[in-house]
Design brief:
Largest sheet: 4 strands, antiparallel
Strand content: 15-25%
Keywords: Secreted
Family: Belongs to the AB hydrolase superfamily. Lipase family.
Number of helices: 4
Protein name: Lipase domain-containing protein
Subcellular location: Secreted
Structural class: alpha+beta
Distance between the termini: 16 Å
InterPro entries: AB_hydrolase_fold (IPR029058), Lipase (IPR013818), TAG_lipase (IPR000734)
Amino acid sequence: MFLETVACDHTKVTPYFIESIITPKGFYAYPCPNLVSYLIGWCNPEDNEYVLMGEHVSRKARGIYYVKTNPKPPYAQGDPRRRRKTTRAPTSNIL
């Protein structure tokens, strides 16, 4: 179960990308240098560090980014800056 939560599931890349084209929510990622830093909780992004991923990704985005997703479709969780203000995010997977 733990590995399913933190592992990158490359088999979902195509469904994630397709959903990124059609969803109004969007897949928002944030930079973090490595998985260990992410798991420890050392990556606390500023609001301006989030990047919309998928079809609409900025060509300026560089580095390692982490995307929280829902375990089943629809995968997109939307803008985390909005979620933070309203409710707690559901259990997630990492792309």
